[in-house]
Design a protein that fits this description.
Largest sheet: 5 strands, antiparallel
Helix content: 25-40%
Bound molecules: zinc ion
Shape: extended
Strand content: 15-25%
Structural class: alpha+beta
Distance between the termini: 75 Å
């Protein structure tokens, strides 16, 4: 079901329809309001999700749980679809907005890891015999370090605004089409997030008490003479 994704087909042959779509899209800050950097966004405050009053009641209960643990799967799908060039973050008080951010995959620099203790290492190994001894646990040979098949990467997210100036005058048709595609994919991903949240409303919220080991510092009389 689409709530954020516009049903209206955007005519990719018309510069003015594409510009209008981008201009009219809801926007929100990428950082704080005083940075004045904004990007394409959607308001996801509960009253704005088109829920029935029954769902809304349940929603207030569900948001007391760690919902982003679950919803992050949807965001990761979007990142994959965008080849890492864009991601979705939450912003605003009580994370009431989904915001489109630009991003890129960056290598962590790690080349190998230890098969015994999983310590990561910036050096590749396997060039000479016995060069794979783990510096942390000294495991070597079959138990020692091995190169990553795919070196690990992390998503580096930029907080810069996207199309802040809303100045599309000089954009080519190709550039506009590409941007409209990204923003439509964002709208559609926001719908997926909304739907995943609605599916969560079918589950029950149960209270659970957990014991958290805590470290504390206390003062003790010193008897050392
Ligand atoms: Zn090790």
């Amino acid at each position: 079901m689409s709530h954020f994704y516009s049903q209206k087909k955007i005519d990719r042959r018309s510069k003015s329809s594409m510009v209008q779509f981008l201009n009219d899209h809801f926007r929100y800050d990428t950082m704080n309001s005083w940075n004045r950097s904004t990007s394409y966004a959607h308001c996801i405050k509960l009253h704005n999700l088109g829920l029935t009053s029954e769902q809304l009641d349940k929603a207030y209960d569900v948001i007391r749980t760690d919902i982003w643990d679950e919803l992050d799967v949807q965001i990761q799908d979007f990142v994959t679809q965008m080849h890492g060039a864009y991601t979705i973050g939450t912003n605003g008080r009580s994370s009431g907005y989904l915001v489109l951010y630009s991003s890129e995959w960056k290598s962590t620099g790690y080349k190998s890891y230890c098969r015994t203790c999983y310590q990561r290492n910036y050096q590749a190994c396997g060039n000479t015999d016995g060069d794979n001894t783990c510096g942390a646990c000294r495991a070597t040979g079959d138990q020692g370090r091995v190169n990553y098949a795919t070196p690990p990467r992390q998503l580096s997210v930029s907080s810069a605004g996207i199309d802040d100036e809303l100045d599309f005058e000089d954009w080519s048709m190709e550039q506009l089409k590409a941007r409209v595609n990204v923003v439509e994919a964002f709208d559609s991903a926001c719908d997926d997030i909304r739907q995943a949240f609605i599916d969560m409303l079918e589950m029950s919220v149960v209270e659970e008490t957990i014991m958290v080991p805590q470290k504390r510092y206390v003062l003790q009389a010193s008897h050392a003479q």
